[in-house]
Amino acid sequence: MTEQNVLDALKNVIYPGFTKDIVTFGFVKDIVVKNTTVGLMLDITSSAAEVENELIGNATKALEEAGFEEIHVNINAPQASRQMSNSVSGKNIAPHIKNFVMVSSGKGGVGKSTTSVNIAIALAKQGKKVGLLDADIYGPNIPRMMGVDDKKPEVQGSKLLPLKAYGVEIMSMGSITEEGEALIWRGSMIMKAIEQFLRDIIWSELDVLIIDMPPGTGDAQLSLAQAVPITAGITVTTPQEVSLDDSRRSLNMFKKLDIPTAGIIENMSGFICPSCDTKSDIFGMDTSAAVAKEFDTELMASIPIEPAIRIGGDTGLPIAYHKPDSETGRRYQEAATKLWEFIEKVNAEDLAGNAGVQPTTPPGVSACSTGGSAAAVPAKAAEGESCGTGCGCH
Ligand SMILES: Nc1ncnc2c1ncn2[C@@H]1O[C@H](COP(=O)(O)OP(=O)(O)OP(=O)(O)O)[C@@H](O)[C@H]1O
Ligand SMILES: [Mg+2]
Prior knowledge:
Blueprint: H1 3-10, E1 28-34, E2 37-43, H2 49-65, E3 70-76, E4 100-104, H3 112-125, E5 130-134, H4 142-145, E6 155-156, E7 159-160, E8 163-165, E9 168-172, H5 187-199, E10 208-212, H6 219-227, E11 232-237, H7 241-256, E12 261-272, E13 279-280, H8 288-294, E14 299-305, H9 307-315, H10 319-322, H11 327-348
Parallel strand pairs: 2-3, 4-10, 4-11, 5-9, 5-10, 11-12, 12-14
Antiparallel strand pairs: 1-2, 6-7, 8-9, 12-13
Helix pairs in contact: 3-11, 5-6
The chain binds adenosine-5'-triphosphate (ATP) and magnesium ion.
The site of magnesium ion has 5 residues, from helix 3.
């Protein structure tokens, strides 16, 4: 008997309340096969005892039917109680990282990666231990922006050491795949990739991990929110009205995923002409403050369109490091200070926790059912978006 026999058998075991099987979800780990004896670990996201029992029963049965005689199915489930050093509830697969910040936007190209890079550097300059995770697995830009695009992470056993630049630890899909390679991801693969970025990278004991998200409000955002308790969400937007609509989508996503919202960064807010030093209004300006108010949060910074920002991104010389005393450099510093104050408030008031977005459903109740109770909904995701469970969100 082989590992493949085990996986083939377990593909018949559906995760309770969902439409996908436990292999597709990536829950089956540490398989050991010796003749007709098998041992394995199911690394699940639910802490409900009913889910555990049902999974052990169904997995054992599927393996027996496949011809295994001695079967050991172990379960690794998150503890229902608090497990972090700081104030959180729910699941945390990277407990040595004290705080997680999700940098998001309703649409692409508004400057999430630029913001993530510069805020990470600004926080590191303020003495914090900072990591920067490029969770944009489709279009990883962080290695180039941080000037580490020619470096590969060192392997240590089955784990990877993060790269380091400007006082910040960095990991990106771009650092482990070939440049320009097209990656096609299914929802379950996104979940697995994000979990591996948190679990299988040897991050230091970080004060904060800044996470640069892919655009939109989809599988990656949900998977991340289920894997670790996000301490703070930042929405990046540009000032046009249409962008603000997208920004509202991102802010609504934070609400639905129980992510405390630190605020909005209005990027490309006016243009500073490098030769004449005057400011022109290209996409509009100062439109985000009203949206911030609408969501009871704040405008953390307005960052102008500035060639030095784009050049900094293209050449791996971020403005927060190379021109910290420029007006824009100072604004990133201010945004970092506000972010840290917010993080401290969230921790002091116990506001971070992802227990409410775990895919826990009572056994036998379909997570896809709209008729079920609120508890049967797999997770809260933005309207009209996939929630990554394979059955849509309601
Ligand atoms: N304030 C700014 N001034 C000038 N150029 C900027 C500014 N902000 C971002 N850029 C440039 O705009 C481009 C898009 O920015 P960035 O990659 O940060 O956006 P993004 O939201 O992460 O995009 P994606 O959704 O594709 O991940 C980059 O070339 C970046 O250097
Ligand atoms: Mg980006």
